Amino acid sequence: MSLWQKLTLLCVLQLLALAAMVADKQWTLQTGTAVILPTLPVDPRSLFMGDYARLNYAINRLALDGEQALGGDKGFQPHDRVWVAIQPQPDGAKALSVHHQRSAIPAGQLALAGEVQHIDTRQAHNGATLRTLQVRYGIEQYFVPEGTGRQIEQPQGGEKVSVRVAIDQRGKAGILALLLDGRERYRETLF
Amino acid sequence: MNDKAFGKRLAEESKRWQQAGWLSTEGRQAILADVATRQSRLGWPGGLAQMGALLLGIGVLSWFAANWDAISKPGKLLVIFLALSSSHAAYGVSMTRGLQKLAQGMVVLSVLLFGAAIMLIGQLYHIDAHFPDGIALWAAGGLLTAALLQSQPAMLISLGLAALWTGYEQFEYAQMNWLLPGYLLLATLAVQRHGWALAARGCAALLLLWLTGWHAQAWPLLDDALQAHLRLFALQLLALAGTWAMTQTSRQPCMRTGGGTLLAGVLGGTFALTFPDFVSASGEQAVLDPLWFAGLLASGSLYALGMLALARRQTLSPLQRRSGLILATSFAVLVTCTVMFSYSGSWPALLWNAVFLGMMGWMADVGIREGDRAIINQVFGALLCWLLARYVDAFWTLMDRSLFFMGGGVLLLAAGGWMERRRRSLLARIPTEEQP
What we know:
The complex is a heterodimer.
Chain A: H1 3-31, E1 33-38, E2 52-54, E3 61-63, E4 71-72, E5 81-87, E6 94-99, E7 110-123, E8 129-136, E9 141-143, H2 149-153, E10 161-167, E11 173-180, E12 183-187
Chain B: H1 3-19, H2 25-38, H3 44-66, H4 73-96, H5 100-124, H6 131-149, H7 152-172, H8 180-194, H9 197-213, H10 225-248, H11 253-273, H12 276-279, H13 290-313, H14 318-340, H15 347-370, H16 373-396, H17 401-428
Helix pairs in contact in B: 1-2, 4-5, 5-6, 5-7, 6-7, 6-8, 7-8, 7-9, 8-9, 9-11, 10-11, 10-13, 10-14, 11-15, 13-14, 14-15, 15-16, 16-17
């Protein structure tokens, strides 16, 4: 193989790897079921990548004990892969149960894959231990044009920030659009 | 190998060839003079040109960084594509014009740009995936670049990224990185094909890091963590010793060099087992688990094969062969005892100390036989560490603190003086350039 053939091959393979990253994301966005998730954004700055909104959802914190406890499995460790059963609702999707296996999620419910980041433990008034899973789904940050991150972090005049998310058959999620008071502020496009 | 290192090595080797009668004095001088005249030196014009290229690159990068938000998405994709392809084209042009060093610089730039492209694509499409996966993709791109463009610097960057990848997976996320052996296999094939000594050391160091990462996991099959990890450690040590022996039978000098790093791992592991507190973690329960037996069988087979291959290749005196056999068998028996039986007390540590000292003696003998001063110096460095460790182990618990410092100080002074005399006397037995 000549030098220029090798260089062409290298360039093509590198571009294919980058294209695969984009294709994987687009597959989720194009084939996934859309749900709305209300957010609590914070800390809109990445040292290396510019402005981004860090997004918190109600489904990031899953109670294992107490009155708010979800159904499903109870024993988890940090970095465990979890499957969360999601119920889409007009005012925002809700988590119903959390499991180790996808097969445990009943048919008809959306399955969202996540990773346990840590487990918060606290004592209730009656002395019982209450555990809450902090789960990450890969939709917790959204890059925005420089200087606009603060608008999402601190919406003016009681604006509500929510996110339209697509969840595909593999349980992967991707952000379709960022909404301010239900109106699209940023929309994800291929080009 | 760079020009300066090559010239130095050639001067050393040609001296030996001249002594062996393979090379005349005139021939040696002519070769060294020819090499000296062809060694490249960085002149002022070349230096200014390189500085200019660097400044131009910084200027272009900072312009795009400052205007990044103003560029449309297709524009950003085009910038990424152009950056990647122009670094490859610059490499091609440099190579065709015989500018080897500039070409290597372009390869390094290409690997760095591929990493930047991964991050920028991640940002453009809001891809928030498992963080180490991005580093793995970057390392794979570096490996491909190194293999296709025959670049050791690219391979070294790729190995560094792979170390970061496996470090995150195994230590931060506490998940075994089962993809790394595949990466290591491909990297080793490229290293062996091109004879890259430094990258061979990098591969060996990466293997050691991966094996260490096994102990950051909670293995579901192993019920007693502390005992299990000690047994696993002993098995790894046996397999590593076998792998080292196999590398020493390779015809490729770079594989033998990489094996040196594996040997350092074996010696470091054996040194850890010389600590009484460490070895006593073996516990009280007898182990008859078939899983451990299978592990021992696999590691033992690798060890036996490696040692047999090494023994066949070495030309040793009967005494050296006997000593080597005793040392290799003692090591294997101690590992077997650590894995299969339980024990308590300090006698296992005593035996491991004896094996460690035996290894040091063997290495000193190798250093003298091969005329390698570095091995002798490393042996004495290791012995000094061992002496300090045993001094702290033995005297800290037995004596009052003031007596500990006084007695220990005297002992170390005496031992240090004796060791330094021995080191000099051994080094004096190795012929130098001036004293053939």
